[in-house]
Sequence to fold (958 residues):
Amino acid sequence: MRTLQTLGRMPIGLTVPAFAILIIVFGAPIVLLFLTSLNAPALSIANYQAFLGQQANVRVLFQTIEVSVLATIICIIIGYPTAYLITAAPKRLRMVLLVLVIIPYLTSLLARTYAWIVILGDRGLINNLLLDLGLISSPLPLIYNRVAVYIGMVHIMLPVMILPLVSVMLGIDKSLVAAACSMGARPFAAFWRVFLPLSLPGVRSGSLLVFVLCLGFYITPAALGGLRDVMLSTFIAAQVATSFNMARTAAAAFILLGIAAVIVSALGLDLSDTPGRAEQPPRKSWRRRLPSFGTLTRNLNELAKPYRAKRWAAELYQVGGDGRDRKIVGTVFVLIVMFYLLFPGVVVITMSFNAGTFLQFPPSSLSLRWYRSFFGDPSWTTAALTSIQIGVAVVILSTIVGMLAAYGLSRTVPRLRAILTMMLLTPITFPSIVVGIAAYFGLLNLGLIGTITGIILTHCIGAVGYVVVIVSATLGNFDRRLELAAKSMRAGPLRTFMKVTLPLIWPGVMGGAVFAFIHSFDEVVKTSLISGFSIRTLPLKMWENMRHEIDPTIAAVASLLIFLPLLWLVALYVTWWRSRPKDQLAVPQL
Amino acid sequence: MSCWINRRQFMQTTSSAIAGGALSSVGGRASAQSPGELRVLVYGGDTGRANIEAYVKPFQAETGIRVTPITDDIRLAQLELMVTSNNVTIDVIATNPNTHLIAAARGHLEQIDYSIYRRDELGGLLDFTKQPFGVSGLIYSWVMFYNTEKFPTPKPRPSSWAEFWDDRRFSGVRAFQSGQSGTEGPWEEALLADGVAPDAIYPMDIDRVFASLDRIKPHIRRWWGSGSEIQQIMRDKAADIGNCYDGRAGVLIDQRAPLEINRNQAKLTCDYWAIPRGSANARNAQRFIEFATRAERQAAFAQLIAFGPSNINAYRTIPEDRARRLPSHPDHLASGVLMNTRWYIEAGSDGRTNAERLRDRWNDWILR
Fold:
């Protein structure tokens, strides 16, 4: 307890557990890999020259960045309004919508990618429908092109964008917008000048996560894209598979990491940079970056202010009014987004009930055969239990460690914070295979290859990254005066954290926990190295099955994977919801 | 920081893993198994089941050695890490020829003890399936497939890769295996299509390969990546004509899909059984591999799943209609082309192997 208190007084100390895990599993080996890429001890840049000397590598590097940036932008364009509307929805609906947003992320990557082939393929759902209707005579090229890549990638990444946004938006005091309106700001201006700036930490966290994750993509682009739609990870994976030249692979990985670091710092890595609203003078930098309205319009607006202020008072007590149109537009928008997010999952679940021996949509006839085949086969059920064990341990460890780290980071100097955050994100920026090899060396010395502990630690180094980014976002709008108030009333640091800070950042913590769990539950590449052929997780078993035959057991497993975390979320929500009202009331009162 | 790790030991581990050379000095956890045991990698899915039925169970019954079958694949990186870190947890592995030859060249495998093989079994094994560091248990091939609805019986069908390349005579949606790995790819077919004689393919003229690929590129709807992908494409009838593994097409033909395959100019290769260096049960592993290459066992295996026996004597007991469907049937061996994996791992003066050369060229070519 005392150590915790000392740590609490030295905020940077809170990041110690996170870095300890990172360094033990991954840190030292990655330094060695870096030296290897330089052909240590000779120290030459030959491997980097060889990589950059290949014109194709450079072009694909740029293509990877281009695809990742564009996917991130699309995610912001779709994700921001969705998150806004979710936040604005009544509480119960909001929770339902949030759960629905997470579902696509819960659907196993393989099953989900497969579902897109079923939907977009030359003989897929859409083309068959159009052919049957006689609207087209030959299939439309919906798949094997760049658009299909974006459809697939954005579908996977949208939850990663929406979740941090929602957790930040939930923390924004709505009365600030109302106050702006009462002073004559038009709704749009109130949004633009009050709500949007306050929500920027969420945009930044979401974009950072999405961008960094997109850089490492290759299964989805390979399955949905055309011949030229390759990512750098495609090249790296092929290199590892056929020649496994560690020095060259490491060089390619470090180039990818370097690019990520450069772009991320250009975007601004400062995740939690709108601290205590009154403690510091308001920052102007981001406001300058936003496009200005122009002086003329502003002056005109000034004139109309008193009128609008009056109208605001009148509208406040009006039922319905012109808000209805906006509401319809909003509802339709959310419905379209939800359809996009959920339809592939529906396809997977439907195919799992197919009676035939292969995946088919729509199914010829229905049966529970493939669920029986799952539960009747001990190799499946044991693998599932192992994965659940590992997943739960990863969630507990990485959420606590990540939360502490985020809390500590939010209280350090911005420059140090940026560097430390990037370090914590390395495991999800790096190609999985390189992380796996590094972790293998790290765990080998601890005798943890082929153990559950080893797999848990390996999953944790990635999961902590998610937790840190999402919790940092919620901490961005956190009003530190609340903590000071608690302390002034003689609450100790631990008590303040448990009673004030934790309840307020809880949405972020929960979001982080969800991602941590999924990260652990969907991980194949690193696990296959660390498991040393003695531990079987569910994704490993799925991969094995998928390489050899595609039978609907995969769809059944994927469907179960959707339901399982859903139940968990519902359970969490119920406990959260019960304890919530008190805390929420406490905020406006302060 | 330094308490948990001895930096020098660590460097050695890493560098030896990287150089793929000398055994690491770290005395990591050796495999904790008793000598009466054997851990065998058998692949997943139907192949794994067939391996267990045809080899694992009978071997256990005959020798009393307890075998743990592991239904998984192994990749080069996994093998290399396992061997160089002295942490070998598997006694027998099965790999594709590329992984096998590279692993053998880097010293990751035990030499095969051919002295324990009976002479008639050894004579039955095809020459290319007997390597110093591995013996093949199964042969497979890439063949041409076409949809019989698109190419019904009276209509002419492409019978060679040259005809496949002829988009005007044989129009139809095409699919072909991607060359992104640099090993498995459209290389041999491209040369055959360009008129190279089957026995003059190697050493491959890489410029000629890509000149030939230039001609077919606009007509390929999908360059497929995995066996399950092309299987799905064939089942969905998303392609009318293409190349695929013969086993994948066979499964669909059994399910009465409107498909036929053409084995003329089929490209043949084989997977190898091998023993990772440092296996605690190398002697039993040698016996297992010997057992799995016997004609009688391979005949049993080939009737469970449509892979070709590497021991040609197996055909004595396989019924003719089944035998005709296996890629290593003597007739198919004669009409096919044997893939020369050794050429792929040969390195030029710049240290790049031919496979790497093909891969780099492919990466460049797809962006054009």
